[in-house]
Amino acid sequence: MKDADARALLRDLFDAALAAARPATCLAPYIDKLRPPKGRTIVIGAGKASAAMARAVEDRWRHPIEGLVVTRYGYGETCKQIEIVEAAHPVPDEKGRAAAGRMLDKIKGLSVDDLVLCLISGGASALLALPAPGLTLEDKQEVNRALLKSGANIVEMNTVRKHLSAIKGGRLAVAAQPARVLSWLISDVPNDDPGVIGSGPTVPDRSTFADALAVLAKYKIDPPAAVRAHLEAGAAGKIEETPKPGDPRLARVETIMVATPKRSLEAAADLARRRGCDVVMLGDNLEGEARDLGAAHARQALNLAKTQDKPTVILSGGETTVTVRGKGRGGRNVEYLLSEAIAADGAQQIWGLAADTDGVDGAEDIAGAVFAPDTLARARAKGRDPKAMLDDNDGHSFFELLGDSLVTGPTRTNVNDFRATLVVP
Description:
With 425 residues, the protein is α/β, with parallel strands linked by helices.
């Protein structure tokens, strides 16, 4: 297989995964089944896909609606009835804080005849940045930055976020009672736990203030004094916990998963088979250090190269972590891919692609990258040491230097990381 053909196949697989999670596609059957309430319909939401989800609702549902959703800068859509606010991600800003406060106000004082339609996707945790009483946005920003660098997984990060928030961890749904709350979720987390997606603003929370303190202790994060005091007061029972499973205030809440990483990986696998490839599916919920996973997948690819008699694609999803030790530009997908390329060591049969389906890997407007058999040789010819750049957490600079970055622009969806390794015998 020619290099250009291998690269094109990997990109086609990624595009197939994205297509399966487009809001206009995955929401259509749910919008068509939804019956209008006797009262008002308030649409709220947050996440990188939320504006596209709102647009899908407006385009397809022929009943009066109103509302507000907040999305990442650059991820907005033009809507006539639902207000779209753009704010910062992954570190929250004042626009996100203000939008979250207005959203909470919109759903207070509703009746049993009203419907709150909540559109949640990955990124909602940072975009719904409404601090709990006694905390400031600056407190939340400082903790968020520390968590992003720590190597904490998404469950751990969102455990802390829920307990510093006035809106996450089920509190948004509590504020909407007695209205009916219907949540449509696009999953970006391993195992599709609705309590983790966007920090679960409309679902029960199993974590506690004590769990949040344990996360900070585990990663040796010293938070602002107000944050520590807030969490310790909660652990001591002086602040009300997030609503737990069985809470009667959540009795009128329904949650539906409209798109998942698994469905997107299956769409890519179907295309790979149609193109004549075997598929090895490793799962949609892989976690752990990005560089460790990349090296492990390279070893698996090298073993397959010795035994397979037809092209094979290794697919996986999930959300890895990066413990930042260097001063590079980061990105968990490029860290994974650079580690995989180093471990593959120029093997002539192996290509790889890793990207975030939201179009943003880390804090960069770059989805990910591609590596080929000649990647390491080309980098060394330019005077760059791949291992040194990996140690500096500088995967983005590495692949950008070679022209191998994958730039999609805003995808307006988010079903987590997509990884594909192509082995050609």
